[in-house]
């Protein structure tokens, strides 16, 4: 007998489903693995533990086929959300995983507070993604990244 699927199930299967949930301490080994493949100066385990321990922060995990595909870490500083880190496993990129994480983050952080972030001026893919979600450039922090002296673009979403 053939299985009857809802429209959401059909679309989910076609696109490959991404499920977003809270990031847990038990995810951190997989987070570190993605982090090391994503950044020239990856965060340490201690930095993720510190962010996860902050009660006011929002840390989310994106799962695909029971595998950690990506994560986002966002901290609240006074009246501003600071998007500290977002990365997707190279095996899962360009499939809407970061988009799913950011949409959920904006839902959870929607309390009229603005979001800000810094991004390497050469990271065109990430800058394009942030602009797609409405972030706008608001200046540069010169030589912000110590590994190569690259400038950071400061972006805001009000
Ligand atoms: C940047 C990164 C997180 C993107 O992750 P991803 O899962 O491949 O991104 P997605 O496929 O979800 O694309 C994000 C959204 O932005 C849109 N987008 C991406 N680049 C775009 C561009 N140049 N112009 C317009 N829209 C763009 C996509 O269409 C998508 O929207 P959708 O969900 O509505 O389809 C991923 O490439 C990565 O981990 N890079 C290394 C780490 C990094 O640079 N992190 C950012 C540091 S500031």
Give the topology.
Layout lengths: L6 H9 L3 E4 L5 H11 L6 H9 L4 E7 L2 E11 L2 E9 L8 H12 L6 E6 L3 H9 L3 E10 L4 E8 L1
Parallel strand pairs: 4-5
Antiparallel strand pairs: 1-2, 2-3, 3-4, 5-7, 6-7
The site of coenzyme A has 18 residues, from β4, α4 and α5.
Walk me through what this model shows.
The longest helix has 12 residues, at about 95-110. The chain has a 7-stranded mixed β-sheet, sandwiched between helices. The protein is about 30% helix and about 35% strand. Mean pLDDT is about 90; it is low at about 10-15. With about 160 residues, the chain is of the alpha+beta class. It is globular, with a radius of gyration of 17 Å. It has 2 domains: about 15-115, Gcn5-related N-acetyltransferase (GNAT) (Aminopeptidase, 3-Layer(aba) Sandwich), CATH 3.40.630.30; about 115-158, no CATH class. The protein binds coenzyme A.
- Report the C-alpha radius of gyration, rounded: 17 Å
**Share of residues in strands:** 25-35%
Looking at the structure, the CATH topology of the largest domain is Aminopeptidase
Distance separating the two termini = 52 Å
CATH architecture title of the largest domain? 3-Layer(aba) Sandwich
Order of helices and strands: HEHHEEEHEHEE
List low-pLDDT spans.
10-14
- Can you list the strand order of the major beta sheet? 1-2-3-4-5-7-6
